[in-house]
Specification:
The protein is mainly β. Helices cover about 5% and strands about 50% of the residues. It contains one helix and eleven strands; from the N terminus they run βββαββββββββ. The protein has one helix at about 25-30, and strands at about 5, 10, 15-25, 35-40, 45-50, 55-60, 65-70, 75-80, 90-100, 110-115, 115-120. Strands 2, 4, 5, 6, 9, 10 and 11 form a seven-stranded mixed sheet that branches. The protein is globular, with a radius of gyration of 13 Å. The N and C termini lie far apart (about 35 Å). About 35% of the residues are buried.
Length: about 120
């Protein structure tokens, strides 16, 4: 099982980043996927999720209208386009594969987790 998140970095407030999550086909092709994040001293929180076919997406209220989740099944890769970043978006971002075809916000619904990629937004 392999999940590799990448694309994190340091960006100024108002800037943008695109995160990628490469997954092995065996683990992700028929499953939903999602992004979570954990800021220093805080609990891990849901960011966004996408269904196995990309048709259904969901977002945390805090990122709606700024972040866009997508996936390319041909490349077995999921993306998170993050625009209008604020210092409150600073966190370690994790990608995960859901146990089901349509992913939701609950962390318990995810079976596989990748290592995080750090996003730091300076003010």
């Amino acid at each position: 099982v392999q999940l590799q998140a990448s694309g994190g970095g340091l960006v100024q407030a108002g800037g943008f980043l695109r995160l990628s999550c490469a997954a092995s086909r065996r683990t992700s092709s028929n499953n939903g996927m999602g992004w979570f994040r954990q800021a220093p001293g805080k609990e891990r929180e849901f960011v966004a999720a996408i269904s196995w076919n990309g048709y259904y997406t969901s977002y945390a209220d805090s990122v709606k209208g700024r972040f866009t989740i997508s996936r390319d099944r041909g490349k077995d890769t999921m993306y998170l386009q993050m625009n209008s970043l604020t210092p409150e978006d600073t966190a370690l971002y994790y990608c995960a594969v859901s146990r089901q075809a349509v992913a939701g916000p609950g962390a318990d619904g995810y079976r596989y987790w990748g290592r995080g990629t750090l996003v730091t937004v300076s003010s």
